[in-house]
Design brief:
The protein is of the alpha+beta class and about 475 residues long. The protein has three domains: about 5-80, Uridine Diphospho-n-acetylenolpyruvylglucosamine Reductase, domain 2, CATH 3.30.43.10; about 90-195, 2-Layer Sandwich (Uridine Diphospho-n-acetylenolpyruvylglucosamine Reductase, domain 3); about 200-420, Vanillyl-alcohol Oxidase, Chain A, domain 3, CATH 3.40.462. The chain contains twelve helices and 19 strands. It has helices at about 45-60, 105-115, 130-135, 140-145, 175-180, 215-225, 265-275, 295-300, 320-330, 380-390, 420-435, 450-455, and strands spanning about 15-20, 35, 40, 60-65, 75, 80, 90, 95-100, 150-160, 165-170, 190-195, 200-210, 230-240, 255-265, 290, 310-315, 335-345, 365-370, 395-400. The strands form four sheets. Strands 15-12-14-13-17-18-16-19 form an eight-stranded antiparallel sheet. The longest helix has 14 residues, at about 45-60. Bound molecules: flavin-adenine dinucleotide (FAD). Flavin-adenine dinucleotide binds next to strand 4, helix 3 and strand 11. Flavin-adenine dinucleotide binds near residues 69, 71, 123, 132 and 183. InterPro entries: FAD-bd_PCMH, FAD-bd_PCMH-like_sf, FAD-bd_PCMH_sub1, FAD-bd_PCMH_sub2, FAD-linked_Oxidoreductase, Oxid_FAD_bind_N, Oxy_OxRdtase_FAD_BS.
Length: about 475
């Protein structure tokens, strides 16, 4: 491997680490290995320009990392870590937040709440606001307000050709379109401005399900959620923990089902909607009124670093009968497995002015599988098992969703499945001139010409590549 020439970035303001130790760059995801030749922690956009110029001069690939929630393994190249660029400035008059590349949703939520405003953040406050939004960004409030990316006003980006560009609907409409949904494929976004919402209170709750028959629960959830108004969001979470000695007694050998509901509607309407779930829920399920800043607590996502691997497909319809077959394989897995069914639709199905690169606008549901792999597990074996579960559910995918392709699962899942063939061609035309030497390494893979051609000619899934014995498990649970 070529040795990095540190003299090229001597005017860099932030820390530089050559060949960092294995653990030094560990973010939220522990199932991947981050081993760049050089890691740099820029303090501002100009530092990012210097780092990218350095990489271009060395012909070294460039990767970006903020919190590491969406990380995949990295071997060599230059890693730009944005965590020191974490400013958040809220303008209550325009109801917008100016967000540095390294800011988490928790920081944005806190700054916005001081003005009675809220962003379209997700289920975990520790996720990076920019990384989330560049991949679309599905909030518990997205059925009411759309994807987070639909509400980007403008941004600054350093493209791999070393240029710092201001991007907005008027100033660079192509990059603006691509940044909203495929932003990780364009360069290093250093700042983003997005709209905030004036929301007094949200009604939210996690509803425990008593029924042990997951197929019946799923059937009820799908029928019930199909008719929900846009102001109500819904998510079904099914978790299966095998009977393994290394799991705590509280969850070992157990299965749980929970429905998460969020509503910005009237309290009586929301209560009626929850009651309509009928006999599958414990008595008197209640939604609690809360400020939007408290919403993430309802979802109780893991707070610290852990290992997780995931695939996610968008679908126009979920039919509970064939789905039951997939649920059976999920339960029989030797690893902890989690299946999430998100109700999409509502405002997410409407393209905003100027359009976005977000695929799957017409999808009604998002089906996600997340596995908690053991350190000894081969990511490809885990990916194949996940793929088998999804395939056995016989659901017709409209495509994949970039934000939820977790870990090194790309032996099966492809980032190109996240975009329509037409959008992939447009993305190719946009990225080629700004990354002429193909230096950028987005976490989930490049949208290069070969992949683009494959996506247009091939089916949604690759064939599995053979199985491997599952190992022991650690416990993690999302949602
Ligand atoms: C517990 C948990 C909960 C989640 N909840 C939600 C949710 O509710 N809704 C949702 O939509 N998603 C959710 N996600 C997915 C999350 O949005 C993605 O994993 C996202 O990529 C995380 O961004 P990050 O910057 O935090 O992570 P990182 O791992 O730091 O970044 C992931 C990748 O994004 C790209 N990237 C990040 N920053 C930049 C930048 N400044 N410029 C260019 N590219 C960049 C890079 O390719 C980078 O490798 C969740 C993930 C987890 C683990």
């Amino acid at each position: 491997m070529r040795q990095p020439d540190l003299s090229l970035i001597r005017r860099f303001s932030g820390p530089i680490t050559a060949a960092p130790a294995d653990d030094a760059l560990q973010g939220m995801q522990t199932a991947v290995k981050i081993r760049p030749a050089l890691a740099v922690d820029p303090l501002d956009s100009y530092d990012v320009v210097r780092a990218v110029h350095h990489a271009a001069a060395q012909r070294t690939p460039v990767a970006v990392s903020s919190t590491g929630h969406g990380a995949t393994s990295l071997n060599g190249g230059l890693l730009i870590r944005t965590h020191r660029m974490s400013h958040v400035t809220v303008d209550p008059h325009t109801r917008t937040a100016d967000i540095g590349a390294g800011a988490t949703w928790g920081q944005v939520i806190e700054a916005a709440a001081q003005h009675g405003l809220a962003p379209l953040s997700g289920t975990a406050t520790t996720v990076g606001a920019v990384g989330y939004t560049l991949g679309g960004g599905i909030s518990p409030l997205s059925r009411a307000f759309g994807y987070a990316a639909d509400h980007v006003v403008d941004l600054d980006i350093v493209t791999p050709d070393g240029r710092l560009r201001y991007v907005s609907a008027d100033d660079d409409p192509d990059l603006f379109w691509a940044a909203r949904g495929a932003g990780a494929h364009l360069g290093v976004v250093t700042r983003m401005k997005c709209r905030l919402f004036h929301i007094d209170r949200v009604l939210a709750g996690a509803i425990s399900i008593t029924v042990n028959d997951w197929a019946a629960v799923t059937d009820r959830f799908v029928t019930w959620s199909a008719d929900l108004p846009e102001r109500t969001g819904a998510l079904l979470s099914l978790k299966s923990f095998p009977d393994l000695p290394n799991l705590p007694d509280a969850i070992r050998g157990k299965r749980t089902a929970t429905i998460y509901v969020t509503s910005i509607g009237a309290e009586s309407d929301a209560a009626d909607q929850v009651r309509a779930l009928g006999g599958i829920v414990r008595e008197s399920p209640r939604l609690t009124p809360m400020p939007p800043a408290d919403l993430a607590a309802v979802f109780n996502e893991p707070a610290g670093p852990h290992a997780f691997q995931g695939d996610a497909i968008a679908v126009s319809d979920v039919n509970a009968e064939p789905l039951a077959a997939g649920l059976g394989s999920l339960v029989n897995s030797a690893r902890p497995q989690f299946l999430f069914i998100h109700r999409l639709g509502g405002a997410m199905s409407r393209e905003p002015d100027q359009g976005t690169a977000i695929g799957n606008r017409a999808a009604e549901y998002l089906v996600r599988i997340v596995t908690s792999p053991a350190p000894t597990d081969d990511p490809t074996a885990v990916a194949i098992e996940q793929d088998d579960v999804l395939r056995s559910m016989s659901i017709e995918p409209t495509g994949r969703v970039p934000n939820f392709l977790f870990g090194d699962n790309l032996g099966v899942a492809r980032v190109t499945d996240c975009y329509t063939a037409e959008d992939l061609r447009r993305l190719g035309r946009i990225t080629a001139p700004v990354d002429p030497d193909s230096l950028l390494m987005p976490a989930r893979g490049r949208l290069d010409g070969a992949a683009t051609a494959a996506r247009t000619e091939d089916s949604q899934y690759r064939e599995p590549r053979g199985h491997q014995d599952p190992g022991t498990c650690e416990v993690n649970s999302h949602g």
